[in-house]
Automatic annotation (TrEMBL):
Record-linked SUPFAM superfamilies: Nucleotide-diphospho-sugar transferases
Protein name, UniProt field: Nucleotide-diphospho-sugar transferase
InterPro entries referenced in this protein's UniProt entry, alphabetically: Glyco_trans_8 (IPR002495), GNT1/Glycosyltrans_8 (IPR050587), Nucleotide-diphossugar_trans (IPR029044)
Keywords: Transferase
Entries under PANTHER family matching the protein: GLYCOGENIN SUBFAMILY MEMBER
Amino acid sequence: PEGPERLAYVTWLSSTVVGENSENLDEDNYFIATRLLVWQLLHNEKTRTTNNIDVVVVVTPDVSESRIWRLKKDGAIVKHIEFVHGNNDGWLHPSESRWSDIMSKLRVWQLTEYSRILMLDSDMVLQRPLDGIFDEPGAQIMPTLTNVTAKDDEPDLPENYLLASFGETFNEDHGYPPDWDHGLKKYGKFCAGFFILKPSETIFNYYKALLDIEGRFDSKYMEQNLLNYAHRWDGAMPWREIPTTWNIRSINDHDFDEGVASMHEKWWDLIFSKSEKIMGFMKAQRWQMEGYYKAID
């Protein structure tokens, strides 16, 4: 019989989003956000894992030693990854230059020591634990469909796969929980800031091959559009839905009061809804995190 499943929470850190003053860690908001996420998942009594799920930060080669040292001290498992570039990826033109290294996120599929992973952008603030997401019906491994014709210029698909997520909200004006009729945009397209996957070298190689097929997906939103192409609903590996009660982008007060598990918002910026209450909550989490580590240090 197989041993127990190994699960992980994974986020991604690259220095391309930092720009100048890269050694001033107090001004690197993405780095602080990554620390905050690690603290919420590992240490904060209200939000931490109670199932000892690993918390992993994958870092690209340009992330400084000082950041890596701090993340390890905070309790994260740090995994070094190389950048991902295709042999013919000159056709990829992200809509923002800070996303130029974002395809390296695909390396998460190479973490095959884990059976399932929840991949999170670092700009997430939690209200409650996320462990239960792995029990969702949509978050289970699925056989790859064999009745869908594969494209001749694409490599073989894995025997099974997992990609579970939800649509992204248009803006802060939506009901709770948002659905395709009320609040979610682009029917059938998922948000690549929060999704569950099954690692597999076969699928990593499949994604990497897509980088060499010019025009196969719209490169404006880079890895999000690549994944939405690979897991389109009429393809062989359709993505599956998990409830939006786990995570919402463009959060409003009603979502917050109803207890959405996590919020995809940059607490250092004015959030879409301009809610003072939510901004206050998110900033308080940041200072609680700072206080927690100062006391330990």
